[in-house]
Amino acid sequence: MGFTIEDMLTLSEDRYQMSLVAGHQGWSNSISWVLMLEDLTVLRNFAGKELAVTTGVGFDNEEKMLTLVRALNSHHAAGLIINTGFYIKEIPRSVIDLCNENDLPLLTVPWEVYIAEMIKDLSVRIFLQGMTDEQIVSAFIKAMESPDQLAAAKQDLLPYFDVDGDFQVVLVTTPGLDTMDTVERKRIGYRMELYLENVTHNCSFFYYDSCFVLICNNLPPDITKQVIVDFDRRMKRRMPEKEISMGISSRMKDLANLYTAYRRAKAAVRMASMTSMKRMYFDDMGIYRLLYLVPDKALLKEMSENLLAPLIEYDRQHDGQYVETLEKYLELGGSFAAMSELMFIHRNTLMYRMNNIRKMLGTDLTAAQDRMSYQIACLIMHMEQES
Known about the structure:
This protein is an alpha/beta fold. It folds into three domains: 5-124, HprK N-terminal domain-like (Udp-n-acetylmuramoylalanyl-d-glutamate--2,6- Diaminopimelate Ligase, Chain: A, domain 1); 161-293, Reverse transcriptase/Diguanylate cyclase domain (Alpha-Beta Plaits); 297-386, Arc Repressor Mutant, subunit A, CATH 1.10.10.2840. It contains 14 helices and eleven strands. The chain has helices spanning 5-15, 62-74, 93-101, 115-145, 150-157, 182-194, 221-238, 258-274, 288-293, 297-318, 322-331, 336-343, 347-361, 368-386; strands spanning 19-22, 33-36, 50-54, 79-84, 106-110, 166-173, 203-208, 211-217, 245-248, 252-253, 279-281. The strands form two sheets. Strands 6, 7, 8, 9, 10 and 11 form a six-stranded mixed sheet that branches. Helix 4 (115-145) packs antiparallel against helix 5, helix 11 packs across helix 13 and helix 11 (322-331) crosses helix 14.
């Protein structure tokens, strides 16, 4: 997850007498770069995840500091370091409260610290961590794409992850993500990465094949679930203009099964994007687990249309409800009383319809295999309608 606020604080607490005074919930924010900021014009260079450093020369009163914090938050900065003791003697309570409210880490270093040396030190560490992250992402992609590349992926990931441990894949997407230019996609990715709470180096976050990918390694199930729920909540609150869909894989043991976990997450995010659920766990998808895992979408369509063709054609010509009637018949175990109550249609009418449906399909629907085939055909039909 890159060089984080936590990493920086561990390194700098003694070396630079750095203290975290607000925005503690953002401790896992990763830092893309460090920029000196003495007025707001520098913000035009912010793409997201930047760490701002200021001596306070341009923000030497409470209102100016509040304006700075609001601007950094709107530009999705990773945090703010204030060099206190000269221009800013004390940080106002209102500034601390605003940083806490927005989970924006606010850190201080004393005036005696040589800021240029600190920025150089942190920038080098961010650069080196970035190179490591690229290696990690490349290895995870190898493991997801093909089991044949597993040995090489394990070798690269072994220093950073428990390759024999548990893995879970979360995929996040939004309409048009794959057609955006690289800069815009990176901005969205940076924003999303800042919305991940309590996640550091046991996870990896990156873009791949039309989705943002979060891979969690050895996170306890309750922590994983909370991370996902909080991530979803923060995205909806801070990116209301985006329609976000999320798919979560099964929990799999060993890196060798990351290939399977990724495909399950892909099935879940596809279903999430086609329904009103928007956050879908693969393990909760029921029989749809099988249907959404089928890569040949044309085959599914053929299976459904070939079985239901007579009823679809009848409904088209007569504005009928034969497909719906068959579906309810199968869902309710053939109970005409339950069908009548649900569909507000007289029992005798439904019995008449079902006799016609049986004749049109050429089956009495008594065999379990026939009932299952037609029920699956109806499920596939809904998948097609939602896509």
